[in-house]
Amino acid sequence: MPDDLYAEKILILDFGSQYTQLIARRIREAQVYCEIHPFNMGLKGIRAFAPRGIILSGGPASIYDKDAPVADREVLHLGVPVLGICYGMQYIAHVLGGEVEKADQREYGSALIKVVDSSDLFSGFDRSKEEMAWMSHADRIRRMPEGFSALASSKNSPVAAMADASRRIFGVQFHPEVAHTPRGTRILKNFLFKVCGCKPLWTMSSFVERTIKDLKERVGKERVICGISGGVDSTITAVLLHKAVGGQLSCIFVDNGLLRQGEAEEVMELFKGLYHMDVHQVDASQHFLNHLKGVTDPEEKRKVIGREFISVFEKKARELGKAKFLAQGTLYPDVIESVSFRGPSATIKSHHNVGGLPEVMNLELIEPLRELFKDEVRLVGAELGLSREIVMRQPFPGPGLAVRILGEVTRQRLEILRAADSILLEEVRRAELYEKVWQSFAVLLPVKTVGVMGDERTYENVIALRIVDSLDAMTADWTRVPYEVLERISNRIINNVRGVNRVVYDISSKPPSTIEWE
Ligand code: XMP
Questions:
Q1: 246 shares a domain with 191
Q2: Which end of the chain has fewer CB atoms surrounding its CB within 10 Å, N or C?
Q3: Domain range holding 460?
Q4: Ligand 1 center to residue 399 CA distance, Å?
């Protein structure tokens, strides 16, 4: 097993493109480690990072904008191969003395490109064939800098790709990272393997091996506390630590009473039964219900739950004795978000996980997954031998069913929602949709409507079904679920869940809606 998992790294400088994370994922999929940093990362930092290659991402700006983002010019003179994508390519052209012009109109969508030079970046491409490429730009290259030649052209962009092979600087006007550029992965791989000379060292099995070794070293003889929720990230964090330090790890599972049907039992069974881990369940259902009494405002609910979670968790942790570390399942997208030059995005909803805990408890943080994307975490789970059911679990929000019960959370309303939600999940699984969609769940609305059951008038609750497709939860679209599946879910809920006489399907996309209703 190579110990130099991080020996060859690609640096992605982010100019603000919505696709930057996608570039990183494509590179990781090609088994090369990469990191995203803001475009203005200092030269010292870049040298210390010691990249094998640098990718300049796209971005929404025009290079002629007053405050257009610019990287240190030296980036192009480090002797490290550079690939500029869209804005990144225009930046290269501009800095090296070429000319960028405003196109007559914004080019957005699929375009056909013709490869004119099939060396390096387009190695393996056929010059007699046209290729589909995804364009999303306003500006284009009018004149290439000295030393550059065109590698590909399209109707709207005579220079759809360019290179100065001797300096190993490349640019593409289109987006090789998106699925709409079918052979884009090949172009990125050519950059990684042919131009930068990388080897595919980044595999999840070497990640697991290396992480366990690092965790052992870092933790030494100290004790670690880990909060678990049954979700993929916290489960895998705990299992990695358990493998590394065994009995020095104690897990705390706060049952806030806002979980789905049977979930608390499943979590305990997994950790105690299967892994024989030291796990402490705190049944805080009543505590949370007491604090949620009368609370109907969504933000207020989230705040109450976040605050009470910390207080319950902290109390339990103190009972367990002194620990030095707190393990958390932070993922790479959270890390990028917090260092992004755009600043943390406006708080639409205050997210509650274990945020705030480390400060309150004065513990050192351990985040073994902080370099990974979600799909990589799932691969790590598989590598660790976790069942598919756990590894492929849909995301579930920290505040649980509380943000799916509109209005006040009461024991009775929780019961109604749990019953409806479990029917929905059962049918979604039966239709083999569970792993295909991003999330599928039921929402209990704070309205009653009139219905008729037998000869009786009813006046009962409405359940909304929310089933969405998404890649990263930043955007989402409602899933076109077959009518028969919706029909079965609706029939079963109305016939079996007391207190519900109407089911509706949510057909809003994000944006402008969000995935959760609160
Ligand atoms: P929204 O509703 O903002 O949700 O479109 C985006 C994704 O985040 C999940 N979500 C949360 N996850 N703590 C979490 O860990 C939270 O407080 C929280 N709120 C929403 C949501 O389920 C969706 O996948």
A1: no
A2: N
A3: 410-505
A4: 9
